[in-house]
Amino acid sequence: xxxxxxxxxVFSAVLLLLFVGVMPTTSxxxxxxxxxxxxxxxxxxxxxxNATMAARSQEEADALxxxxxxxxxxxxVSMVEMCRHGYFHVVNNDYTHWEMYxxxxxxxPTINSQGNxxxxxxxxxxxxxxxxxxxxxxxWKNWNWRSEGDLLLNGAYxxxxxxxxxxxxxxxxSLGAKSSSMVGAMTxxxxxxxxxxxxxx
Length: 201
Description:
Elements: H1 2-22, H2 32-63, E1 66-70, E2 73-74, E3 83-84, E4 87-91, E5 94-96, E6 103-106, E7 110-114, E8 117-119, E9 130-132, H3 137-140, E10 145-148, E11 151-153, H4 183-187
């Protein structure tokens, strides 16, 4: 009987502490439930703020984008990742059998294509190397896109736009382009290794 009373007192004390811990205090400051609510609301605001900051920082990162795509043999639907904002130097690549386009862009990127080999697919509607994604011609005509020393085969064509002056492409130049006639030799051993399990590559 004494043991039961002892545990009943302990249980009552724990309940009292829990009850007092979650009740608002009378001194005008919020405790317990209010503090918990504030904490959850703060987390929601921080989460929303973090999402906004992440989106903003991604836009800023895109705007400062400078990339070089070099010495690659490619056979995919769209050959280069979507170029957004920034500056892109596409140099000495071998583009063959694309299904839609080889180079795509949106949000006013600068694209400098030099010394590449573009071999268009058989499809007569997929001969164009370039694609301005979801953008009217009146808008993209001022984007700086140029082809210099590229080899265009099987009816492939590159639609240039914007400035032709070399100074406009200074930030979209990362290395000296070799002649497009050398692309086959340069990319002959490019790509994934043909390794097999338990054998030396």
